[in-house]
Write a structure and sequence with these properties.
Oligomer: heterodimer
Largest interface: A-B, 28 and 25 residues
Distance between the termini of chain B: 21 Å
Number of domains of chain A: 2
Shape of chain B: globular
Helix content of chain B: 40-55%
CATH topology of the largest domain in chain B: Arc Repressor Mutant, subunit A
CATH superfamily of the largest domain in chain B: Winged helix-like DNA-binding domain superfamily/Winged helix DNA-binding domain
Structural class of chain B: mainly alpha
CATH class of the largest domain in chain B: Mainly Alpha
Helix content of chain A: 55-70%
Number of helices of chain B: 5
Order of helices and strands of chain A: HHHEHHEEHHHHEEEEEH
Order of helices and strands of chain B: EHEHHEEHH
Number of helices of chain A: 10
Strand content of chain B: 5-15%
Strand content of chain A: 5-15%
Radius of gyration of chain A: 23 Å
Structural class of chain A: mainly alpha
Number of strands of chain B: 4
Distance between the termini of chain A: 26 Å
CATH architecture of the largest domain in chain B: Orthogonal Bundle
Largest sheet of chain A: 2 strands, parallel
Strand order of the largest sheet of chain A: 1-4
């Protein structure tokens, strides 16, 4: 119970801090997902909307926390607490969309793009001399999966014929299963699947299309190289920490340990890794230009491909992953048929996990 | 190498792409043996049509500036200016210089510009349009 409360509080705090910080770490030429020319980044509308957005987010945070507390005190059901996190995320999107809408209106009314030369910049060296994928960062995750499997093999004979595979929020077992390779090693399969998925995403990010600023393409390209390398390392580090959490969870399952601190074994490593990854990416999310002379070109106005300011849908674009406009990292090009295949794969994987964990 | 395309320009994209690559060769940013990205990858990076990049690469291949190979992809080749090229280039230079004269640009200024442009290309081999 205390774990559920702590987890929801930490997650809410993380979402809140991220929501408040994002306008400062997102590209200044895309305030709230609206592409604006460089000379409009400090436009009064943008400044005002940023201020209003922050107040709204803060208010939503207090409201979501209040609703969470009331729901918990009325029902006493700790499972409802993560709902307050979802509520906060929903409210956050609302705040974002209002700011997005106002800036879009000001941009259209003011003709912000009139008389500007729009361009696209590409750094060919990203293809002919690509940065090296940080393979070494994949090693910890792989080692942990192998270690888990080996410990499982050693312990397998001593696992009782029926054992607990799921624990309630209070730390007591609430589901038992007959011993088999599928049940005993279920978390090892999850480890392997998640490691493959996160490594796949890291590889896709690595090959993904950069969104260079045509005004300062060289500095922009340098930043992109650094950012994809950091992102790949963050993802592989996250994979290792999730695997570690699942190793701990497997050990508890195989030894039949029942303790109130058991959920922490899963929650702590994953939460730590998520916080570290978010902080590292947020600190490096904004491009820094080191005195490169401007080329006179402006990034092209690509607002029409962004639905609701956050979903990218462009059928003519063959890229699978594109840099997020508001937020950290990348997002899928929903106009690409491969996105549908990928999403189906993720849904299938989650389905498989659920069947393995909760199936008869 | 940074390639910038101007979407507002009247010059077609494939022509811009070809011009930028020729300039990079003249400047020595690309030398003999320098690889160019595969057509599909470059088109995806620009977010433009495959055929636009294909057309630019095809022009460069016809002009003997790059070699397209199934295995090695597009590679910059060394080329020697032959007689037909010299004739063609002179004709185009004539038009460009005529524009300068017709618009009243002083001959001194034209010559200075030509000199400084040539000086900005590290290697002096012909290959750039004036």
């Amino acid at each position: 119970m205390t774990v559920a409360i702590a987890l929801s509080s930490v997650l809410s705090a993380l979402v809140l801090v991220l929501a408040l910080v994002l306008p400062s770490v997102s590209s200044p030429t895309v305030p709230f997902g609206v592409r604006v020319p460089a000379q409009r980044t400090a436009d009064p509308t943008v400044v005002r909307q940023t201020r209003i957005y922050r107040w709204r987010v803060l208010g939503s945070g207090i409201l979501a926390a209040g609703i969470g507390v009331v729901m918990f005190s009325v029902t006493g059901e700790p499972l409802l607490l993560p709902m307050s996190v979802l509520l906060l995320v929903g409210a956050w999107y609302g705040c974002f969309f209002l700011a997005n809408h106002e800036i879009r209106a000001a941009k259209a009314a003011g003709g912000w793009y009139e008389g500007l030369r729009q361009g696209i910049a590409v750094d060919t060296e990203l293809r002919t001399d690509p940065p090296r994928f940080p393979w070494l960062w994949l090693a910890p995750a792989l080692v942990i999966v192998v270690v888990t499997a080996v410990i499982g093999l050693i312990r397998y004979p001593s696992i009782p014929e029926t054992f607990a595979v799921h624990y309630g929020a209070n730390g007591l077992p609430d589901r038992m299963a007959a011993k088999s390779v599928g049940t005993a090693f279920s978390l090892v399969f999850v480890q392997a699947g998640l490691t493959a998925l996160l490594a796949g995403i890291a590889a896709a990010v690595f090959r993904g299309r950069p969104d260079l600023d045509p005004a300062r393409p060289a500095a922009s390209a340098r930043w992109h190289r650094r950012y994809i390398s950091l992102s790949a390392k963050a993802l592989l580090g996250l994979a290792a920490m999730i695997d570690l959490a699942l190793l701990g969870s497997s050990l508890l399952m195989w030894t039949g340990t029942v303790a109130s601190w058991a959920p922490l074994v899963v929650v702590l490593p994953i939460l730590t890794a998520v916080v570290v990854a978010v902080v590292v990416l947020a600190r490096n999310n904004r491009e820094r230009f080191e005195g490169e002379p401007e080329t006179g070109l402006t990034h092209r106005d690509d607002d029409r491909y962004w639905r609701g300011g956050v979903l990218y849908l462009n059928r003519e674009d063959h890229a699978l992953l594109v840099p997020r406009r508001f937020g950290l990292g990348w997002t899928l090009n929903l106009g690409n048929p491969r996105s549908a295949i990928l999403l189906a794969g993720v849904v299938a994987f989650i389905g498989l996990v659920i069947t393995l964990r909760f199936g008869a | 190498m940074i390639l910038n395309l101007d979407l507002a320009s009247e010059v077609p994209l494939y022509q811009q792409l070809r011009d930028r690559i020729v300039e990079a060769i003249a400047e020595g940013v690309l030398t003999e043996g320098s690889p160019l990205p595969p057509i599909r990858a470059l088109a995806a990076d620009f977010g433009i049509n495959f055929h636009t990049v294909n057309k630019a690469y095809d022009l460069l291949r016809q002009q003997g500036l790059i070699r397209l190979n199934r295995k090695t992809g597009a590679v910059v080749t060394s080329t020697v200016a032959d007689a037909p090229f010299r004739e063609d280039w002179t004709a185009r230079a004539r038009t460009l210089l005529a524009e300068a004269v017709a618009r009243g640009l002083p001959a001194d200024e034209v010559l200075t510009t030509c000199h400084s442009l040539l000086a900005s290309f590290r290697t002096g081999h012909s290959g750039g349009t004036p």
